[in-house]
């Protein structure tokens, strides 16, 4: 089971990035998927969630209207389109999969990708 994030980098304020999370080794299409972010010394923050079929999404208030979570189950990949980025969006971004296996809730995490918003 593996999740691999990509797409992070350095971008000026007001810019955009698209993060990807490629999944393998488990039933991606049956998984609830999340994006989290973490700043050094602070707790990891839930940023966005998406249901297995992609019909339902939700966001932390600070990114509503700027970020869009999506998924392509045929490609076993989730995305986070980030627009109008702000310096306070700087963090390591992680993807997480939640799936019920043999009646037990199981989760998998990616290794993270750094997003830095700075001029």
Summarize the topology:
Elements: E1 2-6, E2 9-11, E3 17-24, E4 32-38, E5 45-50, E6 57-59, E7 67-72, E8 77-82, E9 91-101, E10 104-109, E11 113-117
Parallel strand pairs: 2-11
Antiparallel strand pairs: 1-3, 3-8, 4-5, 4-9, 5-6, 7-8, 9-10, 9-11
Molecular structure report:
- It is a single chain.
- This protein has strands at 2-6, 9-11, 17-24, 32-38, 45-50, 57-59, 67-72, 77-82, 91-101, 104-109, 113-117.
- With 119 residues, it is mostly beta strands.
- The strands form 2 sheets. Strands 2, 4, 5, 6, 9, 10 and 11 form a 7-stranded mixed beta sheet that branches. A 4-stranded antiparallel beta sheet has the order 1-3-8-7, with no helix packed on it.
- The chain is globular, with a radius of gyration of 14 Å.
- It starts with a strand and ends with a strand.
Helix % is under 10%
Q: How do the helices and strands follow one another from N- to C-terminus?
A: EEEEEEEEEEE
Radius of gyration: 14 Å
Contiguous uncertain segments of 5+ residues: none
How many DSSP E strands? 11
Number of helices in the DSSP assignment: 0
Whole-number average pLDDT? Answer: 96
Oligomer: single chain
Shape: globular
Category from helices, strands and their pairing: mainly beta
Largest sheet: 7 strands, mixed
State which percent range the strand residues make up: over 45%
Measure the end-to-end span: 37 Å
């Amino acid at each position: 089971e593996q999740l691999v994030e990509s797409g992070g980098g350095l971008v000026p304020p007001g810019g955009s990035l698209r993060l990807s999370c490629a999944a393998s080794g488990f039933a991606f299409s049956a998984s609830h998927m999340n994006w989290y972010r973490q700043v050094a010394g602070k707790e990891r923050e839930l940023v966005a969630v998406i249901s297995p079929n992609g019909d339902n999404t939700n966001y932390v208030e600070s990114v509503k209207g700027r970020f869009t979570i999506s998924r392509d189950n045929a490609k076993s990949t989730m995305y986070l389109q980030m627009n109008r980025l702000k310096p306070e969006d700087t963090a390591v971004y992680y993807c997480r999969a939640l799936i019920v296996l043999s009646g037990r809730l199981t989760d998998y995490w990616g290794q993270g990708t750094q997003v830095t918003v700075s001029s």
